[in-house]
Amino acid sequence: MAGYYNRGFVSGSDRGGNSSYYRGGGSYSGGMRSFRKRSGCSIKRADGGRVFLYGWRLSRGSFFSFTASETKKSKDFKSKSGKTWRTLLVVITNKSTFQKVFCSGLYDVQRERLYIKDYNLIANPSAPNGGYFGQHLRREYSR
User: How far apart, in Å, are the Cα atoms of 142 and each of 13, 85, 115, 137?
Assistant: First the structure.
């Protein structure tokens, strides 16, 4: 009778415990792990269409925050693909060492995303679970 039970199925314990079915939701004890946020981002709009973004990130034991806002010199321009971009002033602060870095960022008006090309960072306030601020991973790089 034991030959028909689980025919053709190799359980996780027979494979050395590497099966996600055997682990039961990601942990070896069978329970779900608690979720801890590592980044967040929000957007505020002022009168006249001005944009203000702010967010935070926990990376390698350091806590980073950023603010991005328009200045008098900020301007809109269109790319060849038809997207509308706006230049913003970005201030990134390392809260652990209190160092501030000033740089420029490109804000995609349609998708509401901020790209900081100097540090390969992206800020997306419309991402699930309160936004995302972190490394910009392009599809070509992740292959």
Answer: 32, 25, 18, 7
